[in-house]
Amino acid sequence: MNGCVGCFCAPGAAALPLPSRNARGPVCAAKTWQRKQAGASRARRANVVCAVAGNGSSGYVAPAENRVAQVARTTNETEVSVSVNLDGTGKCDVDTGIGFLDHMLNQLSSHGLLDLNIRARGDYHIDDHHTNEDVGITLGMAIAKALGDKKGIRRFGHFIAPLDEALVEVVLDFSGRPHLEYGLKIPTERIGKFDTQLVREFYSAVAGNAQITIHVRQLSGINSHHIVEASFKAFARAMRMALELDPRRLGGIPSSKGVLTDAQGLEQAKTQSMNH
Ligand SMILES: [Mn+2]
């Protein structure tokens, strides 16, 4: 018996006894399966195009309700307001008074497809510490508020982003359990005027207030600006993955416990953050 027409299976191996109606010769089981898959994936692509027109993320499922929130937070040290749309298109309008932080928030918005509007003013005459941290706290609170009970989300997200020589991995879980494992080794104390110790403070504030477990791991990197920016790009894409809806979840809460928010923990985080 001859081998299958159109693939390289061994002559006679698993060949169907009769050629199919459209085939010009005998067809092996593998080829039949491939042809079925090709037809199915053409059909899938057509559906997805209808479902995601204008969004551009394959498999994107729009939520039934808008996932948006606004949070304003004022202390003796800072005044911060954040608006966020978790299902945005990457529209970003931020002015925190800290240039490098604005640059990083633009990465988060653009690559996470979050619409962000952030205004902050703080006690810069001391340093940028309070303002940087309070932007992270308020952003975390806004994300948690927009997300609500987390019904239907993918929950986990991960991404490895390069920026030239720098390569940074971010893995996160919207677990309701705030935790930060921070592995950036930034070689300089400053990027322009920005104190590089503030990167950790920012991630910690977001993790605490959005109740996310975040692991940030540096795989390579020499230039401080590249390392931090790669981390924000990875963070953004990981957030996008985790926050998008899983159509197979059918709107359920992605936890075997059935709950992913810790109201008491959230209150504690807010109280702690007010006492910094
Ligand atoms: Mn840059």
UniProtKB/TrEMBL annotation:
Q: Which InterPro entries has this protein been placed in? A: IGPD_sf, ImidazoleglycerolP_deHydtase, ImidazoleglycerP_deHydtase_CS, Ribosomal_Su5_D2-typ_SF
Q: Which PROSITE patterns match?
A: IGP_DEHYDRATASE_1, IGP_DEHYDRATASE_2
Q: Which HAMAP family match?
A: HisB
Which organism does this sequence originate in?
A: Porphyridium purpureum (Red alga)
Instruction: Write out the entry's keywords from A to Z.
Output: Amino-acid biosynthesis, Histidine biosynthesis, Lyase
Can you say what this protein is called?
Imidazoleglycerol-phosphate dehydratase
Give the highest taxon in the source lineage.
Eukaryota
One GO molecular-function entry: imidazoleglycerol-phosphate dehydratase activity
Query: Which reaction is the catalytic activity of this chain?
Result: D-erythro-1-(imidazol-4-yl)glycerol 3-phosphate = 3-(imidazol-4-yl)-2-oxopropyl phosphate + H2O
* Keyword Lyase attributed: yes
Is Membrane one of the keywords UniProt gives this record?
no
Compartment annotation: Plastid, Chloroplast
Q: Its GO CC terms?
A: chloroplast
